[in-house]
User: What shape does this take?
Amino acid sequence: MADWRSAKLDGTGCYWSPRRGGPIQFVAAGNTAMTKVGGRIVILKPRRDAKPLFPFTHDAWRADDLTMRVVDTARIRAMGYETVTTDAVLIVTRRNVTIRLRGSMICGS
Assistant: This one.
């Protein structure tokens, strides 16, 4: 949480985790997203082909040789007063290597 606050990502947006309650590996709010690579914070911006993911954020991101895309199933797993949790796949490509990670996308304010 301290990392995404230092990246000014507080507020309405989404985060992705490999399992509910697990470690957060991707955070997006507005036109900024972040992840960590090798222990360092990487700030991402929307790709040109990005589509809306949740009101106020996007599904496709880029920083240098790193791209990330969120494929949200829209299958709701949990819902709170201000949040919704869905199944989602995080597709990460770096240096021409692509991995697909299944997990949960938690969006809200």
Residues 75 and 86 are 5 Å apart (CA to CA). The mean pLDDT is 87. The chain has one helix and eight strands. The helical segments are 2-6.
